[in-house]
């Protein structure tokens, strides 16, 4: 009887061990091997287009998240000359606060302006130009309707003295997610035009699987749209994965000089995908495996999923401001600081300066909420106003 019971326990223990070994083999061997040989899997983990929030958001109605006086429209990106259909991407143009106040009646947002505590007296922007040209614009646009909305927004964009910020978001969700809209509202309050868009595969843009070249091409198309309308300075702001898009795009635009961006703001940046994916929370279980580089890092590089900001930041001359929170667990603080050191050591001394601003972990801004730092508006304003008219 006792012998039989011991044999049963031994069998149970053996089966449990076999089950554990099988689970280990599947998670730590099979899954990494699938990742190595599946480009679709690699892109899915990198871009996370399947992560969508907030639920039920209608991106054609930015006013539903407090972004009144914002135009929603679409741009078509051609991947090559023979591409007849192209990729349609969704874009928002958020008007600056001083323009909203000046034309609140024509925009039909008088009630929203009265309720919004963020509408304050202007400290930057083209207030004089707005005042001088307001009568002519009002006579041309007594009321802004869908049929003349594009003309009105582009008319304000062309006005002298303005500044444009092109925002490049990170992975997951869309241009309408909460922390991103907080950034737009902050920049609006500083009287900057704000453009934000969804790369291919995100939001209401065409559901085309994104690639590094593809999302950079999307960003360049939106930049081109802005630059073709206005000669006002454009500052590029990238967050998280968007910092990799920003540096890659600016490297491609380096030859434009005065027609290129006037400054680059990198929020929570990394050096390159190889470094970032090793430090990402998703990789915590895998990063110490002897075959991690073979199955995870190297295949992404082979398939051109690199986002090498450490290389690209040495290929354009615009001033750069890096901001990073010490308690960022998605993109660790030391990667942002390492990028800063690489920029200092590798960029020409004749190029624009590179700034680095750290935000202490006690504030708990983490990866997404540096926009809530009370000192950030002053840093942004000082940086942009210092370099908006400089060409490097």
Report on this structure.
- The chain has 392 residues and is α/β, with parallel strands linked by helices.
- 45% of the residues lie in helices and 12% in strands.
- The chain is built from 15 helices and eight strands.
- The chain has an eight-stranded mixed beta sheet, with helices on both faces.
- The longest helix is centred in the first third of the chain and has 36 residues, at 2-37.
- It is elongated, with a radius of gyration of 24 Å.
- The model has no long low-confidence stretch (mean pLDDT 93).
Which key features would you list for this structure?
392 residues; alpha/beta; eight-stranded mixed beta sheet; elongated
Find the structural class using helix and strand composition. Answer: alpha/beta
Count of strand segments: 8
What is the mean pLDDT?
93
Gyration radius, rounded: 24 Å
N- and C-termini, Cα separation: 88 Å
What overall form do the CA principal axes indicate? elongated
Task: Identify low-pLDDT runs.
Answer: none
Tell me roughly what share of residues is in helical segments. Answer: 40-55%
Largest sheet, in brief, is: 8 strands, mixed
The ordered string of helix (H) and strand (E) elements is: HHEEHHHHHEHEHEHEHHHEHEH
Helical region count?
15
Record the strand order, biggest sheet: 1-2-4-3-5-6-7-8
What fraction of the residues are assigned to beta strands by DSSP? 5-15%
């Amino acid at each position: 009887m006792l012998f039989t019971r011991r044999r049963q326990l031994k069998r149970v223990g053996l089966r449990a061990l076999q089950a554990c070994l099988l689970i280990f083999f599947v998670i730590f061997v099979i899954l990494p091997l699938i990742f190595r040989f599946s480009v679709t899997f690699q892109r899915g983990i990198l871009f996370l287009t399947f992560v969508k929030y907030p639920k039920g958001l209608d991106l054609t109605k930015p006013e539903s998240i407090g972004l009144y006086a914002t135009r929603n429209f679409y741009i078509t990106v051609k991947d090559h000359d023979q591409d007849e259909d192209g990729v349609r991407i969704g874009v928002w143009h958020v008007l600056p606060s001083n323009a909203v106040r000046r034309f609140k009646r024509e925009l039909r947002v008088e009630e929203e302006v009265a309720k919004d505590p963020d509408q304050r007296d202007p400290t930057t922007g083209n207030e004089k130009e707005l005042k001088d040209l307001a009568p002519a614009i009002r006579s041309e646009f007594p009321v802004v309707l869908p049929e003349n909305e594009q003309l009105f927004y582009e008319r304000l964009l062309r006005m002298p003295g303005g500044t444009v910020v092109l925002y490049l978001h990170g992975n997951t969700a869309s241009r309408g997610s909460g922390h991103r809209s907080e950034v737009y509202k902050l920049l609006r309050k500083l009287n900057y035009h704000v453009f934000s868009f969804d790369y291919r595969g995100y939001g209401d843009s065409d559901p085309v699987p994104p690639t590094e070249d593809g999302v950079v091409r999307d960003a360049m198309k939106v930049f081109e749209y802005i630059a073709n309308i206005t000669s006002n300075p454009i500052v590029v702001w990238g967050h998280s994965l968007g910092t990799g898009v920003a540096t890659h795009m600016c490297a491609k635009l380096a030859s434009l000089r005065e027609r290129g961006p006037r400054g680059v703001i990198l929020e929570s940046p990394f050096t390159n995908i190889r470094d970032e994916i090793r430090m990402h929370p998703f990789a915590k279980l895998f990063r110490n495996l002897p075959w991690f580089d073979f199955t995870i890092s190297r295949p992404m590089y082979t398939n051109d999923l690199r986002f090498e900001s450490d290389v690209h930041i040495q290929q354009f001359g615009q001033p750069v401001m890096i901001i990073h929170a010490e308690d960022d667990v998605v993109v660790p603080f030391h990667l942002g600081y390492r990028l800063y050191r690489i920029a200092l050591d590798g960029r020409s001394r004749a190029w624009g300066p590179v700034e680095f601003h750290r935000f202490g972990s006690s504030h708990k801004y983490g990866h997404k909420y540096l926009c809530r730092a009370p000192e950030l508006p002053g840093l942004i304003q000082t940086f942009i106003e210092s370099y908006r008219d400089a060409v490097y």
